[in-house]
What does this fold into?
Amino acid sequence: MLTIRIIPCLDIKDGKVVKGIHFENLKDAGEPVSFAVYYCNEGADELVFLDISATLEKRKTMKDLVRNIASNISIPFTVGGGIKTVKDILMLLENGADKVSINTQAVKNPKIIYESAKKFGSQCIVVAIDAKKIGDNFWEVFIESGKVPTGIDAKKWAKEVENLGAGEILLTSIDADGTLSGYDIPLIKAITDTVRIPVIASGGAGSLEHLYRALVEAKASAVLLASLFHFKMVTISYVKKFLSDKGLPVRL
Amino acid sequence: MTGIIHYGAGNVFSVLNTIERCGEKTCIVSKPRDLLNVDRIILPGVGAFDEGMGYLEKNNLVDALLKEIKKGKILLGICLGMQMFFEKSEEGELKGIGLMKGCVKKFPENKNLCVPHMGWNSIKLVRFSDFTKDIPDESFFYFAHSFYTLPKDKDVIYGVTEYGLEFASIVQSENIIGVQFHPEKSGNYGLTLIKNFLRMS
It folds into this structure.
């Protein structure tokens, strides 16, 4: 049986983790590779690395980092942040990333989704959608790290990225993000009802019950977690045990 | 020496890396000549059926591959690599390699199932092989695919997985092994499979 997925997310700036748990037993608390190995051993199903510096000068750092992560873990990982061209995607995949996450550029130039899915396969193209509630049953897509409104309906955009060949959607609620008050369940449900590709829920998780609701009520295939782990509230194995006890299929 | 066939699109690195982590030498195969010095061959898979077959044909790798297999070298096909073993695919127009009889089909439309089938799913072992030695029944492996294989000869099916329907997740016919999941991304059990593969020849 296909399991639900627990995916820790690490924000990277200039080659260092800027958001993450500072475990005492990790020698280099800021080293992405140490985090990656730790999470992998803890039972993470996948990992996501978002390069929040993502300027041209930092590309070299990212390339080395991706290579280093790939050499040290044996679970899939996604890399996102600042991807502009199919060539950027090729560089990340060639260095060992399993998937790439495209956000702003996908909106500015949707062709990149089609072209990269055709070249590398849908399974490695994740489109990240940051959405904010504007009205009744209407969520607007924002780009540039959630700063710039686009006027686009998130449901329509989700359908379009699926048609263009995206293999997965990483959906973040701007309203809920960082609040720890729970996922935007109606938003996630609106998207999972619209598309057939897997949806990863992100933004707002503050308790284990929140995760359960996103996976069961809103039918997300996976949950992305940063703050929950960041504030040392829970461990991955504890999360998985909880969900398993509630009857969800998990990889223990 | 393990030869890994390179398609020019992505993820050879993780396969290569995993093999080297198991203490084995690797080389990239992009033309028939590269196959001569390898002991075993991996046909990884990322991308679409026609792109993969097109690449193999353009570089004369189909015949070269068949020749090496006849000599007894072991071949491991991963994901699309396994799908290309078969005669044809609903994903493309080109013919497959034809190492195994049968075809590749798309997961049926079903509102409750996401496609691609993406994530960790379990494998029921239906036949024993040295390849699956030390792998407990119903262990989890990482899948990422929208098509599955339908072997004509059921004897080649060694492992099956449930996703809306039951499909072949491990196939084997003598020195030809195919896996629908990604052992290189499947944690410790994935590594065990790779090590078993390396020990088989």
Chain A touches chain B at residues 1-5, 40, 45, 67, 70-71, 74-76, 90, 93-96, 98, 118-124, 167-168, 196-198, 221-222, 251 (CB under 8 Å). Chain A has one domain: 5-245. Residues 199 and 205 of chain A are 16 Å apart (CA to CA). Chain A has ten helices and eleven strands.
